[in-house]
Amino acid sequence: MTDETTAEGARGNPGPRGWRAATEAALYGPGGFYRRPEGPAGHFRTSVHASALFARAVAGLLCRVDAALDRPPVLDFVDMGAGRGELAGGVLAALPAGVAARTRVYAVEIAGRPAGLDDRITWRSDLPDAVTGLLFANEWLDNVPVDVVEVDSAGVPRLVLVAEDGSERLGEPVTGAAADWLARWWPLASEQGARAEIGLPRDRAWSAAVNRVVRGLAVAVDYAHTVDTRPPFGTLTGFREGRETAPVPDGSCDITAHVALDACAAAPSAGRAPSGAARTAYGTGRAPSGEPSDTAHTASETARTSFQAPPDTAYAPPSTAHDLSPAPQETAHAPPVTAQETHTTARSLPPARLLTQRAALRALGITGVRPPLALASTDPSAYVRALASAGEAAELTAPGGLGDFGWLLQPVGIPDPVGDEPQAPQDPQDPQTPQTPQDPQAL
After folding, report:
1. Nearest-angstrom CA–CA distance, 70 and 415
2. What is the largest CA-CA distance in the chain?
3. What are the Cα distances from residue 51, in Å, to 46, 192, 283?
4. d(CA 108, CA 106)
5. Which residue, 199, 220, 196, is CA-closest to 210?
6. β pairing state of 75-80 and 131-138
7. E strand or H helix at 63, and its extent?
8. Exposed, middle or buried: residue 252 (CB in 10 Å: 0-12, 13-18, 19+)?
9. Rounded to a whole number, what is the distance in angstroms from the first to the last CA of the chain?
């Protein structure tokens, strides 16, 4: 890698530029990856695609938010970065009829509305101005483009510039707000080759999304790491047709990087007196389409290692108040959140909370516990269904896979509706645990 910069490439193509600009064009520009007809499900597998239980759990969370809001006449559900509307449709189908009748469902996505989507779902390319209910962003922040920095031979962090073919070179030293963010959230070693992704655009995107919530809950779900467990060489990678691949910003593959969710958690309070701290305990992992989620440690093994943080770790907002006004073209799937957000200028938000998907889903009743063997004798069909459901729940909560995803919860004007994770579930077929009856419908 050299310390050179080229302004323009041949044939009018832009020359090497920062990964943020290159990713923005590759994913969301004309003919970009996320505008392709097959959608994300054609290339990688998320919790939404793994099991309908995930949508059921989100529907249950929406019902808890509804209760905390005293059941308003109109309840909003916003699926941020909706793909092809799978989660929005699944949540609507799983809601009790009375709640569904009051629910206004938005799917926010830059791609066009897919054929056959439930007519009750409003498809839009930007966030609603005001949300009273649940804003849910599943694997959205990881696709908000970010710049990459690398330490040079003199120990100086420099912007990594990338050409359309994926070749890289070093650019200018990192300065200003980006340098401040690195110092606070991703301190780099001075050794040559150390890398990091600058998460400031994601902080801005999340802050802007939270600001649209008038009352309710904002949730971001993603593979993540914390300030004490950042990977030494970054996490930037690509996905194509179910396989992890080298990230090449030519529109042929997804380009993604793990999320500094602890920094995002502090972002809505940055520049104001902190109203609380974020609690964390989560890891990472993405399951390529067609591969088991607990074996997703493939080519970039460093990036796929599970980064564990101790529970109840406090993260105060940055001491330096960066400019967190949204910059143009910095959000993913859904287009940019603009600077219309004014809901939180004078309000004090309660503490954000970070936890694993495993803990969040168990708190929402998704346990993965197998049904009792007695059910096989009394109702064999119910036993088979419950066993299959338990297998799906186990995948959603699996250590080393989807269960290690991070959940960022930001209540707005209501108490945290998720609560604490119940005690670890007992398997009725394990002779070392007491035999207690299990409701197969509670899986």
Report:
1. 12
2. 73
3. 9, 43, 21
4. 6
5. 220
6. parallel
7. helix 52-68
8. middle
9. 51
Other CB atoms within 10 Å distance of the CB of residue 249: 25
Cα(362)–Cα(367) distance, rounded to whole angstroms? 5
The identity of residue 159, as a single letter, is: L
Name the residue with tokens 């090497």.
16
Which helix H or strand E contains 48, and what residues bound it? helix 47-50
**Nearest-angstrom CA–CA distance, 402 and 249:** 26
- Extended beta strands in 11-155, E state: 17-18, 44-45, 75-80, 103-108, 121-124, 131-138, 147-151
Contact 214, 413 (CB under 8 A): yes
Angle at 243 between CA 240 and CA 245, to 5 degrees: 70
Distance CA 257, CA 90 (A): 27
pTM, rounded to two decimals: 0.76
The single-letter DSSP state of residue 373 is T
- Taking the chain (443 residues) in runs of 10, the rounded mean pLDDT of each run is 38 77 93 74 62 88 98 98 91 96 96 92 95 96 96 97 96 97 96 97 97 97 93 94 90 94 89 37 35 31 33 35 35 47 61 92 82 64 62 74 89 92 44 32 33
Determine contact, residues 134/62, Cβ cutoff 8 Å. Answer: yes
Distance of alpha carbon 378 from alpha carbon 238, whole angstroms: 49
Give buried/exposed letters for 285-304 (b at 16+ CB in 10 A, else e): bbbbbebebbebbeebeebb
Only one residue has tokens 């914390």, namely 226
Is 147 within 8 Å of 159 (Cβ atoms)? yes
